[in-house]
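Need tokens for this chain, all 202 residues.
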Amino acid sequence: AISVDYDKEKGSLDARFGVHSLPTFILLDPWQRELARRQGFTHPSDTAELLGSLPGDYATVRQFGDILDKDPHNITALTQMGSFYNKSRAYDLSNLYFHGALKVKEARENPYLCEALAIGICTNELMGGDSKAAKKGFELFLRAHPKSKYTPGAMFGLLNAELHLRHKAEAQNWLARLQSEFPESHEAQVGARLIAEEPEKK
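Here are the structure tokens for all 202 residues:
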């Protein structure tokens, strides 16, 4: 934690961190990049929950964070940081880096990397609880990349999204497509189990 005299440092705080009122709680990564912020008074349990949702150890990606300090468009560092936050279940932060990677020319010229990043973004949305956004993203992916190696994963993502939205009939339709087009796939097997475990509406 850093204590500052707001009256004396107001100008520099506004310029650097966008602090316009007190209290403002800002979490930074080891490279001084903002992870999260809260304005106003918050309950200690909310602060503890926020802290618990973020990684505590950056040792495995320190080299990539250092690279991004010098080259913010480095595709390898962006994807590695996105994967790191995904594994840490910080899905919004993961997508921040995946979206950044998609904007890099090197990614736009590599269709396989674009597809992997797009699937990663949709999966993060699903895991982060935004099933509607995930559903839209997976549908867009299938329209844009119908023959992709990630097609079974996109169908499985839609199956999951529909289940989360309590649309079992639609989820069953995606399972039928998986079983028809990719009968031996892991996604078809897991999807069948998820459908079977889903309770019927009363």
